[in-house]
Specification:
Layout (H helix, E strand, L loop, with lengths): L14 E4 L2 E4 L4 E2 L6 H10 L4 H6 L6 E6 L6 H12 L7 E8 L5 H8 L6 H10 L6 E7 L4 E7 L2 H7 L4 E6 L13 H9 L1 E9 L4 H9 L2 E7 L6 E7 L14 E4 L3 H12 L4 E4 L15 E3 L9 H17 L7 E2 L3 E4 L3 H13 L8 E3 L1 H8 L7 E4 L3 E3 L1 H8 L5 E4 L6 E5 L2 E5 L5 E4 L1 E4 L5 H4 L8 E12 L9 E3 L3 E2 L6 E5 L13 H14 L10 H7 L1 E10 L5 E6 L5 E9 L5 H17 L7 H6 L14
Parallel strand pairs: 4-5, 4-8, 5-7, 8-9, 12-13, 12-24, 13-20, 16-26, 24-31
Antiparallel strand pairs: 1-2, 2-3, 6-7, 9-11, 10-11, 14-19, 15-19, 16-18, 17-18, 21-22, 22-23, 25-28, 25-29, 26-27, 27-28, 30-31
Helix pairs in contact: 1-3, 4-5, 6-7, 9-13, 9-17, 10-17, 15-16
């Protein structure tokens, strides 16, 4: 691994093994008891927090939130997950587990550590398969068929609690002993524990240090000293009194999602899986039309030279999408790998600066020379580039159909929304011929048609960009075995057709394909991959023969997506109205994470994005400056 001073990587834990038990070299302490780590976890954390009894009380559509101060080997998380499964909660209930780790284990060390617990093998395998690369920030892992959501923050504990939005029902104050890891036990960190606790929240910790006990009591916890595990004499448990605040209810109201593209279908399914009824509305005759109706779509993102919020959002979206689409492998997701070509001198220089200023784990991407690029893609390239082994291409329309096959999703097609009107505590969607749909809350994710549906006066910095893709028969080109991206993308062949494109037509609203746009795609493809096209027919002739598709992307002034509550020009929220739009040409990458984020918001569950990234995709920024109040 490169210098730990370069973003976004995070320094891994240095582990040594002594009599089969992992120890932290940095802190000189064991990750769990030498006697019986799993038994210790149950005794120290699960029992004092009364998890079995409390899990049994979680209602359909409800949630239970556990927060932890040190993820370590993940043993505490797996034990809690096992206990959750043991209570057989309703399939719409969600266990949220939020944990922080400053020095995360490598995947190999994690595998080694969890091999010690055969009874947790199935859960451990799923965790390991979804374990994120070691890069800083928040990682949302959706496990157990969606019933368990792990938010794993790689970074400092105080930074994490300031960045994340959640309220815990129970705390595992874990991590190494206070004397060995004092930073984790600072009074400021304990104050953040209180700030993120619901009334009635409980806590447990292996330590009984007086300073820790007094700090917890000072922020409002009623703390008890109890017998410790094994040879440890004492430990602490606590309760934040005042239990008058009820548990947050599950999804009991109705939500209408306007737009049945990939974003709308992902959101509808996410909400339905959490127990919320959804009405999915679209003007088309079925889901997965418009841009989501393309035969193939490349799933990638171009990471910035500087690691800033924009780059972090792109990276987080990329990693979440890879994990999400994995369940549809060989069904409609094809992780062939993806090459970002250094297709010009300017792009080669950008990639050089990018590599100098950043350090990413090789499981995300790594640089390749021309020979390796040609070997990986199966076509002759003129340069090297960046190879993303976990990327690939998607059949978006097919996925949309799979996603919307759910008993809580009502599909309403051929319905053109005229107006959105508040009526008796709900929103009414007026349709053709006097037909109406009503819902407590609505989400506008209608792509380039979104601005016309926003029920506020004013102008918005959302724009429509025409994109035409070209369908190339196998006989007309040398098809790659992986996605190749440069000025255009070229996908591997599927049923005899490979898709290339797309044009970027900012001031063209022609919905029909044109030979001119095909010619542009073919010219750019030939420039990007010389020799890939058959020489039997000139480009002009081929442009007249091929087929394709036109779709209109919706993008913003800053080319960043929009997701969240709709705000007016002064920043006031419009009750019950949300946006999910502006995903541009990276919709397949952004949509899964932003659907998760918006579903968190709509269901009142912990947010998968840190606050600053949530602000990055906020809705107020899309108001045109001349309409903003001073």
């Amino acid at each position: 691994m490169a210098s730990p001073n370069l973003p976004p990587q995070i320094e891994p834990a240095e582990v040594k093994w002594k009599n089969g038990v992992p120890e932290s070299v940095r802190f000189g302490d064991v990750y769990f008891s030498r006697e019986d780590g799993l038994k210790e976890t149950r005794y120290v954390f699960l029992q004092p927090n009364h998890l079995a009894e409390r899990f049994a009380e979680v209602r359909p559509g409800g949630q239970f939130v556990i927060a932890e101060t040190g993820f370590g080997t993940g043993l505490n998380f797996l034990a809690a997950w096992q206990a959750w499964n043991g209570q057989k909660p309703d399939c719409t209930a969600t266990l949220h587990f939020i944990s922080v780790e400053r020095f995360p284990l490598t995947r190999d060390d994690l595998i080694h550590a969890l091999d010690l617990w055969p009874e947790l093998a199935d859960l451990a395998t799923e965790l390991i398969e979804n374990y994120p690369p070691l890069v800083k920030g928040a990682h949302r892992l959706v496990l157990g068929g969606g019933q368990v959501r792990l938010t794993l923050y790689f970074g400092d504990v105080l930074e994490a609690w300031q960045a994340l939005e959640f309220n815990a029902d129970a705390w595992f104050l874990d991590g190494f002993a206070p004397a060995r890891n004092p930073e984790m036990w600072l009074d400021r960190a304990i104050a953040q524990v209180r700030a993120h606790s619901r009334p009635g929240s409980t806590l447990a910790t292996f330590t009984s240090v007086g300073r820790i006990r007094r700090s917890l009591a000072a922020v409002g916890f009623k703390v008890h000293k109890t017998r410790g595990f094994g040879r440890k004499r004492d430990m602490l448990s606590g309760l934040l009194e005042n239990t008058c605040e009820p548990m947050p209810p599950g999804g009991s109201d109705t939500i209408a999602v306007i737009g049945a593209g990939i974003a709308g279908c992902l959101l509808a399914r996410n909400l339905a899986d959490r127990g919320t009824p959804v009405t999915l509305v679209d003007t088309a005759s079925h889901q997965g039309t418009a841009a989501s109706g393309n035969r193939q779509g490349a799933m990638y993102v171009k990471l910035g030279v500087e690691f800033n919020d924009q780059t972090e959002l792109g990276l987080t979206s990329l990693l979440f999408s890879q994990r999400f689409y994995a369940r549809y492998r060989d069904q409609c997701w094809h992780p062939t790998g993806l090459l970002q070509l250094a297709w010009s001198a300017q792009e080669a220089d950008r990639q050089r600066r990018f590599l100098e200023r950043n350090a990413y784990p090789a499981e995300i991407f790594y640089p390749v020379d021309r020979d390796e690029a040609s070997r990986l893609t199966g076509v002759q390239t003129q340069s090297g580039g960046l190879w993303f082994p976990g990327n690939g291409w998607l059949e978006p329309a097919r996925l949309c159909k799979v996603l919307t096959d759910h008993p809580l999703i009502t599909r309403v097609f051929n319905f053109e929304v005229g107006r959105l009107l508040p009526l008796n505590g709900k929103w009414q969607l007026s349709g053709p011929g006097g037909s109406d749909i009503s819902a407590h809350r609505i989400v506008i994710c209608a792509g380039h048609q979104s601005p016309a549906l926003i029920p506020l006066n004013g102008a918005y910095r959302l724009k429509s960009i025409r994109g035409q893709v070209t369908h190339l028969p196998d006989t007309s080109l040398q098809t790659p075995k992986a996605v190749v991206c440069g000025t255009r993308y070229l996908n591997p062949s599927d049923n005899g057709i490979a898709v290339t494109g797309a044009t970027f037509d900012l001031r063209d609203d022609n919905p029909e394909t044109t030979p001119e746009s095909h010619h542009e795609n073919l010219t750019e493809l030939q420039s990007m991959l010389p020799g890939s096209l058959s020489r039997e027919a000139p480009l002009t002739e081929l442009s007249e023969q091929v087929e394709g598709k036109v779709a209109f992307r919706c993008t913003t002034h800053d080319y960043q997506p929009v997701a969240g509550k709709l705000c007016d020009i002064e920043g006031n929220e419009l009750t019950g109205v949300y946006l999910l739009t502006g995903l541009g040409s990276k919709g397949l990458t952004y949509a899964p994470l932003l659907a998760e984020y918006l579903a968190d918001e709509l269901s009142g569950q912990p947010a998968c994005l840190p606050k600053r990234l949530g602000q990055r995709v906020g809705t107020r920024r899309i108001h045109k400056p001349d309409t903003l109040s001073s």
